[in-house]
Amino acid sequence: MTEIADLIEPLIALRRDIHSQPELGFAEHQTAATVAKLLREAGLEVHEGIGGTGVVGVLRAGDGPRTLGLRADMDALPIVEQTNLAWASRNPGCFHGCGHDGHVAMLLGAAQALARDPRFSGTLNVIFQPAEEGLGGAREMVADGLFERFPCERVYALHNWPSLPAGTIATRPGAIMGAAATFRVTLEGRGGHAALPQDTPDAILAASVLVQQLNTIVARDILPTAAAVLSVTEIAAGHTHNVLPAEATVGGTVRTFDPEVQDRIEERIGQICRGIEMAFQVHGNLNYIRNYPATINDPQAAADALEVSATVAKAELAPDPAATSEDFSYMLQQCPGAYIWLGQGRGTDSPSLHNPHYDFNDDVLETGLLLHMALARHWLRD
Hints:
Shape: elongated
CATH topology of the largest domain: Aminopeptidase
Cofactor: Mn(2+)
Radius of gyration: 24 Å
GO molecular function: metal ion binding; N-acetyldiaminopimelate deacetylase activity
Helix content: 25-40%
Number of helices: 11
Distance between the termini: 23 Å
Structural class: alpha/beta
Organism: Qipengyuania algicida
Keywords: Hydrolase, Manganese, Metal-binding
Binding site for Mn(2+): 98, 100, 133, 159, 354
Largest sheet: 8 strands, mixed
Number of strands: 16
């Protein structure tokens, strides 16, 4: 498309430069500075330091009253990259393994293109968010007055999705990403000699039974029609062969789409822990932390996104939500909108998100850029 033809190659170079210099959550100082600089050069009004290292660019055109927010996340992951690409990470142990470098490039390109030819009447807020990867950057931006300072009648976020064919766009009404919670159970006995188990409550045996019991919750305590995941991901105890340890820990994650289901799972974990205490004469301590809420799309916003997407590329209704989580959920709790998946798969062997061999597919930069532009022109149409 001639409208953006001159932007694609510079955006590829920018995306790869950001990839080579990844920054973790709330430390995206260089990335944020680059974003602010390019937005100013494009003629947008720029605000920095929102919710930490967040940046918001404001583009006004005409006198229309409507307002729209488009969000991209900026942070990287604490992973050692294994791609061996020319633009691989130069920051050891830090890696753009979720494609946020591509998200930044697509939204920047859309802002640049719309600034020189908006073809809308209203106010567009382009939101560059820090710390999506587990630290709640969206929550911090909201708490810092994001929607009071930059009102949005609707907000959208675009995330690459390797399991979809490159260029395919998908979303759905209602839940699209799961709520995330973490749990850790500490079981305390007394510790003692391994040859005298009758004198020592066995924390390891208690932990082993706990793992088995936890894995019955979704199958036996949740409605078969409800969706939930409980995975035990940590178990630790002991340090030598002839000592029964005084303590064992079991930890994991819970993913749900319905707050009542999450309530039930948390309740059952507590009940099981109390049963383990009685059965094995240990003391149990449960730490259950609710991280991100479920990402719930507004039905009309999702329908509009699919309609607009079909003008840009192949668009399809996502049949099921994903159990992974996303802190864009905090923005959707404050403002109607939708979370959208952009396919970037290169076939069955495409590395998944958070894989050390992953790299954003530059072939879909143009599709993502055009989708951002189309969403803005649709909602802010004169």
